[in-house]
Design brief:
Layout (H helix, E strand, L loop, with lengths): L2 E2 L16 E4 L6 H8 L2 H4 L11 H11 L6 E8 L7 E6 L8 E6 L9 H16 L4 E7 L3 H10 L2 E12 L2 E11 H8 L1
Antiparallel strand pairs: 1-2, 2-3, 3-4, 4-5, 6-8, 7-8
Helix pairs in contact: 1-3
Length: 192
């Protein structure tokens, strides 16, 4: 399933800042990009969960799981239209069943940060969660000190629902994790 986002992306002055991204299914050759993203220390340092090591074989297995359209965990590559290579991914973990799916995103190419791509990719993934998968809500977790991500999620309509104190241990520090949720009717109101 591929989706071209329809949300306009502009910079602070209102000018078109970047191409609209496409969310597409993963293909086997994406494993080299996935390997690069998960070994980009600056990118993965903002993730709640991360691995100390991520090999090419790990990336191949990750992509194989991402290609499984029958899985309850769904992942899409984020591809700027002007470029052929994916620059990150979005995911919905647990799209089947009675429990709401959890959203995740990684923009693994630092050069694409701050261009509105994450916002548009998040909105496109939420559209699929609510419209295609019939989710009644979507949740997410984010490191509490990640002000940029939290601001983006709140702009979209997510509400902070709680704080997991000292939830992640990273480099000898204990970090809090914020929990956010977005209900179907809240999402619908943001689209009006």
């Amino acid at each position: 399933m591929a989706l071209t986002t329809s949300q306009p992306m502009s910079d602070a002055s209102g000018n078109d800042a970047s191409p609209r991204p496409v969310l597409r299914s993963f293909v086997e050759t994406d494993c080299f990009h996935v390997h690069r993203w998960f070994n980009n220390e600056e990118a993965v340092s903002r993730l709640v969960a991360r691995r100390e090591q991520f090999t090419v074989e790990d990336a191949r297995a990750w992509v194989q799981r991402a290609m499984d359209d029958s899985s309850a965990d769904r992942k899409w590559a984020i591809v700027p239209q002007a470029e052929s290579d994916p620059i990150g991914f979005t995911a919905l973990y647990g799209v089947s069943g009675d429990v709401a799916p959890e959203f995740a995103i990684l923009i693994g190419d630092n050069a694409c940060w701050g261009r509105g791509i994450g916002l548009a990719a998040t909105q496109g993934t939420l559209r699929m969660a609510f419209d295609d998968f019939g989710a009644h809500r979507v949740s997410l977790t984010v490191l509490a000190d990640n002000a940029g991500a939290r601001s983006l999620y709140e702009k979209i309509g997510f509400r902070e629902e709680g704080l997991l104190r000292a939830h992640v241990k990273r480099n000898g520090r204990l970090l809090d994790v914020a929990v956010y949720g977005l209900l179907r009717d809240e999402w619908a109101r943001t689209r009006e």
